[in-house]
Design goal:
The chain is α+β, with helices and mostly antiparallel strands and 260 residues long. The protein contains 9 helices and 7 strands, in the order αααααααβαββββββα.
């Protein structure tokens, strides 16, 4: 774990969102690096200050019943209007209370919609685990590469007998992606092959493991804690490419890897 990597995942560490191995690497680094330890203390102090002094507004207990009553009257009035055309002119003008109630309901609907839209996609836990494995692999005490070679004909056979599948290993030097080698790793609790590439000094970890289902997933790229993560599934395998490179570069890399 170096200072740059720690700063990218520090907030997640403070919130207890990282796996045990990555958290252990961070704890070790914080014990040895005064600068990062100071940054951690600043973040913790800021969180405590916000919790202690942020302004909160509590709605009065009478608000919810008042809104329900108003909506009930509005609904009844609407029903009367549809059943009695003569009543339509009388109901056309809404009082300020109606307007306020409808505005409150609209705001609540917007908040609910925003909440659901902001929820993680179903494979976000997968992306989090892939990022955690990527960060852990970059730690000084970890081995990023077990077989170092830029020759795909050396790297690909290395997996024989070590995995029950053949991960794709391509020579993408002409596209700007240099093959560095490979290692055995895991994503969450799943054994995975990790094929390592580099583009403009940015390391790309391509994780490959057996899918638990056969339904193919479309290729998709998202940002997770300062990293770009591209995931997809094909031919019974699941893939996750992780790097701190721009998402467009990682998407292009994944497209090249996934093309038969």
């Amino acid at each position: 774990m170096n200072c740059t990597r720690l700063q990218q995942v520090l907030d997640a560490h403070i919130d207890g969102e990282l796996d045990r191995a990555t958290a252990g690497e961070i704890t070790t680094h914080l014990a040895e690096c005064a600068g990062c330890a100071s940054l951690r203390d600043q973040r913790v102090d800021l969180r405590q200050e916000l919790r202690a002094h942020a302004t909160y507004f509590k709605a009065p207990t009478t608000l919810a019943p008042a809104i329900r009553r108003t909506l009930g009257r509005a609904l009844a009035q609407s029903t009367d209007v549809h059943s009695d055309p003569a009543a339509r002119p009388r109901a056309a003008g809404l009082s300020w209370l109606h307007v306020t109630a409808f505005a409150a309901v609209a705001a609540l609907a917007g908040l609910v919609s925003g909440y659901w839209l902001a929820q993680p996609l179903p494979n976000n836990p997968l992306r989090d685990h892939a990022v955690a494995s990527h960060v852990a692999a970059l730690a000084p005490k970890r081995q990023l590469i077990e077989i170092a070679s830029s020759d795909r004909h050396t790297v690909k056979p290395w997996f024989q007998g070590k995995t029950d599948f053949a991960p794709p290993v391509k020579d993408l030097t002409g596209e700007g992606y240099t093959l560095l080698g490979a290692r055995l790793d895991q994503v969450a609790d799943k054994p995975a092959a990790a094929v390592v590439y580099q583009i403009r000094k940015h390391v790309i970890n391509l994780f490959v493991w057996r899918a638990t289902d056969q339904a193919p997933d479309a290729l998709a790229t998202a940002g997770v804690r300062g990293f770009s993560v591209t995931t997809w599934a094909r031919d019974g395998l699941r893939f996750a490419a992780v790097s701190d490179v721009d998402g467009r570069d990682l998407t292009r890399f994944a497209q090249l890897i996934s093309t038969p």
